[in-house]
Write a structure and sequence with these properties.
Chromosomal Replication Initiator Protein Dnaa, Chain: A, about 100 residues, mainly alpha
Length: about 100
């Protein structure tokens, strides 16, 4: 079973750099902030609360809420971004086997 640290580590490896310290930055070549993907993955896969995610990423729960809304809105209008997220979900799920 994968945990939040495993997801953060996997996303950091895939996109390069430490996503816990990448506030406001995007990985090279990324259309979005990989932290947003990590936050969404942890929320979707592990059902961690917004305050819990805030503690994990060192931000307030309202920042987490904003990040989730941002990535979800972007994914609604961008099929490639949605596909990238789904690929990341499958990769993470594969790690937990």
């Amino acid at each position: 079973m994968i945990n939040s640290k495993g997801i953060i580590s996997a996303v950091s490896r895939i996109y390069g750099g430490n996503i816990l310290v990448q506030r406001g930055q995007r990985a090279r070549g990324a259309k979005h902030n990989p932290r947003f993907f990590a936050i969404k993955l942890i929320r979707d896969e592990l059902k961690i609360s917004l305050p819990g995610l805030g503690r994990l990423f060192g931000v307030t729960h309202s920042t987490i809420w904003y990040n989730l809304n941002t990535i979800e809105a972007e994914m609604k209008g961008d099929q490639l971004l949605r596909a990238e997220y789904e690929s990341l979900v499958n990769t993470i799920r594969g790690l937990s086997c």
